[in-house]
Amino acid sequence: xxxxxxxxxxxxxxxxxxxxxxxxxxxxxxxxxxxxxxxxxxxxxxxxxxxxxxxxxxxxxxxxxxxxxxxxxxxxxxxxxxxxxxxxxxxxxxxxxxxxxxxxxxxxxxxxxxxxxxxxxxxxxxxxxxxxxxxxxxxxxxxxxxxxxxxxxxxxxxxxxxxxxxxxxxxxxxxxxxxxxxxxxxxxxxxxxxxxxxxxxxxxxxxxxxxxxxxxxxxxxxxxxxxxxxxxxxxxxxxxxxxxxxxxxxxxxxxxxxxxxxxxxxxxxxxxxxxxxxxxxxxxxxxx
Length: 288
Ligand SMILES: NC(=O)c1ccc[n+]([C@@H]2O[C@H](COP(=O)([O-])OP(=O)(O)OC[C@H]3O[C@@H](n4cnc5c(N)ncnc54)[C@H](OP(=O)(O)O)[C@@H]3O)[C@@H](O)[C@H]2O)c1
Hints:
By secondary structure, this protein is an alpha/beta fold. It has a single domain (about 10-280), classed as Rossmann fold, CATH 3.40.50. The protein is built from eight helices and eight strands, in the order βαβαβαβαβαβααββα. Strands 3-2-1-4-5-6-7-8 form an eight-stranded mixed sheet, sandwiched between helices. The protein is globular, with a radius of gyration of 18 Å. Bound molecules: NADP nicotinamide-adenine-dinucleotide phosphate (NAP). The site of NADP nicotinamide-adenine-dinucleotide phosphate has 26 residues, from helix 1.
């Protein structure tokens, strides 16, 4: 059973405006949470619950194209200036792209969005997390990487091969779960908990969304996958459910699961941390 949620709790969600993130936002709002949405596009315009929450500032929107560091930096600075605390951070924005593309900084987009950006957000919002009560970070991952036979952290930034879902998408999520595991003891020493969780298969197909799924997966998703409220429940349980005292773990269907290639976790963490220090944290006092 989940812990009973108090009224003044604040969650920050990336990708809060669509799919699984939107369902999680709806649930948290209906339980009285305040939600800080870090999004690149708008919420559905005709959604009464969302509009009411916006009117009373229970829901607050900050806009950023997360893979563009100048846009991300501006939004994070705004959040730090305007918000008092964060109890739970959900790094949820992501998805499988149909082709190989690169961020403004020149790195493969899945890696930038799903591996590097969550790390930057954690580092930048640590102070707000320390001011919160739950001090919890949930990184949305996937079990798609269980099919990976090879994993080389040195190819994440500039892969030479592309495969939908089981290529750079899966590798970047594995890298996310690996740095989550690797950084957990350090964060625990500061009182913060971090976990990665697979929201399971969810039907998040919609008009105007270019699918990065292999062709045979689309009908499966359409006909057999549950609605995104299922994934939202798994992320919610990852934050507040029976594993809420654990840190570093990777959860599938709410159960702690093994990760592959854990010997490469420190290399992945070094990589994201050095990108952060070199390209994002420029001008700030150096980290201990
Ligand atoms: N659906 C599944 O079966 C499944 C399975 C395992 C894991 N996941 C993971 O669950 C998470 C949510 O996915 P979903 O299925 O709910 O997909 P979705 O409906 O496409 O939602 C993805 C969210 O991420 C946002 N986003 C994507 N790229 C962004 C960028 N560059 N900058 C800012 N925001 C960005 C999207 O913004 P826009 O609305 O502007 O596009 C959207 O809000 C992802 O991390 C995904 O990898 C999903």
